[in-house]
Amino acid sequence: MMQQYQPATSHAPLLEVDNLVVEYPVGARTVHAVSGVSLQIARGETLGLVGESGCGKSTLGRAVLQLRRPTSGKVLFDGQDLTAMQGDTLRLMRRRVQLIFQDPIASLNPRRRIGDIVAEPLMIAGVKDPAKRKQLVDEVLAAVGLDPALVVGRLPHEFSGGQCQRICIARALVLNPEFIICDEPVSALDVSIRAQILNLLEEMKSRFGLTLLFIAHDLAVVKAVSDRVAVMYLGRLCEVGPSEQLFAKPAHPYTALLIEAIPVPDPDVRPTETVRVGEPPSPIAPPSGCRFRTRCPRADARCSAEMPELRVVAPGQLVACHHPLI
Amino acid sequence: MLSVENVAVELPTPRGNLRAVDHVNLTVGAGRTLGVVGESGCGKTMLSRAILQLLPKKAKLSGRVMFDGQDLLQLSPEKLRKLRGRSLAVVFQDPMTSLNPVLTIGTQLIETLQEHLELDQATATKRSVELLAAVGIPAPEQRLTQYPHQLSGGMRQRVAIAIALSCEPKLLIADEPTTALDVTIQAQILDLLAREQRRRHMAMILITHDLGVVAGRTDEVAVMYAGRVVERAPTPALFKKMRMPYTEALLAALPRIDAAPHTPLPAISGRPPDPTRPLKGCSFSPRCRYAVARCHAEKPDLAEAETPAHQYACFHPIENHAGAAA
Fold it and tell me: Which architecture characterizes domain A15-96+179-192+202-319 according to CATH?
């Protein structure tokens, strides 16, 4: 059923993020979590967003949903600017956009029964008829591979991590959204369970015609589900491109570093012990110019003086680097 | 160096006895690295705690753990304490749990050196600086006065490794040392462990859930499932010819960087059995695609394959290795 998948359509983007900036104060200083990120996601597309912890990828996801209000910039969803919306208008809009988190157990209220947890979005959305609610909950639970009769009366602690993530996915799907932000949905899961959940997300995507923003730090996981991938470093996008192309021919030295660092399950591939220069600097005082320059083997004077803008290096592939690899 | 003989660990729980480790036999020689691979709950951490004699008080342990000619189960608590930290060191997944948050890095390192090697203050301080430099910590003198919370996760893990290595251990147990870290940092830490292991000719046990991590960095691999070792082989032999269906399934379920996007992953259906309700037959049989009636009725022994070094516990071992194409 995953073969039915169709590549991104050429319609107007469902989501358009324009020059988004998110900053917040820490004491007297400012964390530059997201610094001028622009991206588009077409209807039916999955955009993968990768980067190391602290690069701002989760903050970006939350800023899209207005769970954290951006400092500046626009978030256009289906042509309407979410940053300009307030109160009920925003709440109504949010029904079309849902969020799935990393820790499935922590995102379920331990004292509520599964049936109530999955029905809650319906309650908030004003579905008053209990029979209708039950029908929708049963349908969505069955869709994620759980038996409604066995599940609805039980509490979250009775389920494993993988099953809790299924419940979270059911809760996200129950309002029939168009767009889902998955924030590290499988990083807390074991290898065998991770594959089940990734397959389920793909299946749900084609079944419900979803558009996904898939945030993760694991490139192999991101590649498995994404049409396009955006690489983020310290609050800025380094590179955006079609998955296959980006992995075959990374243009940004940081993308290349990330790909090289993935452990390969093959003993004949000896891990290359190259210069793996240090750790990312703090987002409180990001480096001038290109933010990756302090770890970049190709950096020179221009990189510290001048911030590279995203520009096209290959069809569909954009890179923000003065000395790209291609 | 280390030989684990018929070790079993049972934990009493309200639901009955939980057999966390089920008669495991393993050996590691000096200068060798053994990878222990398995998913959460397979008993790999309990096994490492059994070796270190750091089991919960209620746990029942049987078997023998021979280390450097002594049976660790027969040693007095005082002798054990001397042994741990001196010749038997450990690095845990979360460095915050092994570092004391209210003591400086320097105090913790110097204390270890003074306690086990009986060095004076000046020598211990000098040695600490050398150790921090050896594990790749910049400005080591300044770090001595810092507290764990002032360091990043990768730096903390380096400090934990420096402390573990400080007394020149003969055996280092690294229990998921990189699971909490980003990929680029993971690669650096694994490189560091491999380098120090070669340099010091230590024996090392690398415990992980990721077959990709053990592939290039171990001499031998033991795959655990539901408390038992189900396959054990020299690393190249294992990846060339996996015999146990679980090992194969675990490898196949990993998203691969060279696979096309939207390739469905061969997930392992179901989940591991309840450890308080051990199965009569092979523990993997409910999830195994090769299982027949005998697999459900009888438990296969860990038997030798064509070479004495390659053992597996399966009635229907994989004959023609389909490899990652499975």
Answer: 3-Layer(aba) Sandwich (3.40)
